[in-house]
Write a structure and sequence with these properties.
The protein has about 290 residues and is mainly beta. The protein contains 3 helices and 16 strands. A hairpin with a 4-residue loop joins strand 13 and strand 14. The chain is globular. The termini are far apart.
Length: about 290
């Protein structure tokens, strides 16, 4: 059974959208519902999707994320993330960026007892005018029962630019630019992945996304997503990823400072994957009047 499980795992890994195998993965139910076309998004999950997106945050945020691929328990993934602006914003501030940037941290685990991947990452994003830049460092560990574990450090860089202010945004992210090595045997390395895409705000309620993702050892993955903000508290989403042959969809709910995002992906041969994230924004307390 262990050999069969591991064999199936390595067959399925490429179908996770460069998700595991210590690749950049999927972060957040919103991104999952949009076909993982996430390189231009700016929320707490930018810590994994594109660290440059952290630069647009002005309040501290924290989130939890979990997914399950093809309804197989051992193919589950869980993550904790937090983002902290390095300067306080006063109550009622309309600033679009933190003056000294934003620091983000993430803990993530994928897999089961026989095979699992773990990572601890720290990132930084800074926004200046229409441009944002970001960087991240990951400590990665892969463990296979009976074979031990291996560790590596991966470095990543990203950027975002508003080509047309509040309308058209370009984003790019290079994951594992240092080509970290996991093992000398067959020169096994952490995947090096480049993502680039556009986000177009067609109307205040409609966001269109298109992105390409290229692992240096795989074919390019073309992804697209559509988000429709029906009302302020409710959004519907749909997407597609060509390399993994998955259709995606989902929704987002807002309850004051809390946000719940659900995404589902369907593969014709392997079936359903589900993604759920919950995040909370922390607002400063108003000063008491004398």
């Amino acid at each position: 059974m262990p050999k069969l499980y591991l064999g199936l795992l390595f067959i399925f890994l490429p179908l996770f959208g460069a998700a595991q195998g210590n690749g950049p993965g999927v972060r957040g139910g919103r991104a999952a519902a949009l076909g993982n076309a996430s390189v231009t998004l700016a929320d707490v999950w930018a810590i994994g999707n594109n660290a440059a997106g952290l630069g647009a945050l002005t309040r501290p945020e924290a989130g939890v994320y979990a997914d399950n691929r093809f309804l197989i328990p051992e193919f589950g993934n869980a993550a904790l993330a937090a983002a902290l602006p390095l300067s306080k914003q006063p109550v009622g501030s309309t600033a679009t960026a933190a003056p000294h940037g934003v620091v983000g941290v993430e803990l993530q685990r994928f897999g089961g007892k026989l095979y699992n991947e773990q990572r601890a990452g720290v990132g930084y994003g800074y926004r200046l005018g229409l441009f944002s830049v970001g960087a991240r460092a990951d400590m990665l560990q892969v463990r296979i029962e009976g074979l031990g574990s291996r560790r590596a450090v991966a470095l990543s860089l990203g950027g975002q630019a508003e080509i047309v202010p509040q309308k058209l945004t370009f984003g790019a992210y290079l994951y594992n630019l240092n080509q970290a090595r996991l093992a000398e045997y067959q020169n096994e390395r952490v995947p090096t992945v480049l993502k680039a895409g556009l986000g177009y705000r067609a109307t205040p309620k409609v966001l269109l996304l298109i992105e390409t993702e290229k692992d240096v050892e795989q074919a390019a993955d073309l992804k697209a997503g559509l988000e429709y903000q029906i009302v302020e508290a409710f959004a519907m989403r749909a997407g597609v990823a060509t390399l993994t042959e998955q259709m995606t969809g989902g929704f987002g709910l807002r309850f004051g400072r809390a946000r719940v995002d659900y995404g589902a992906a369907w593969h014709n041969a392997l079936g359903l994957s589900q993604h759920l994230s919950v995040s909370l924004r922390f607002e400063p307390k108003a000063s008491a009047e004398l």
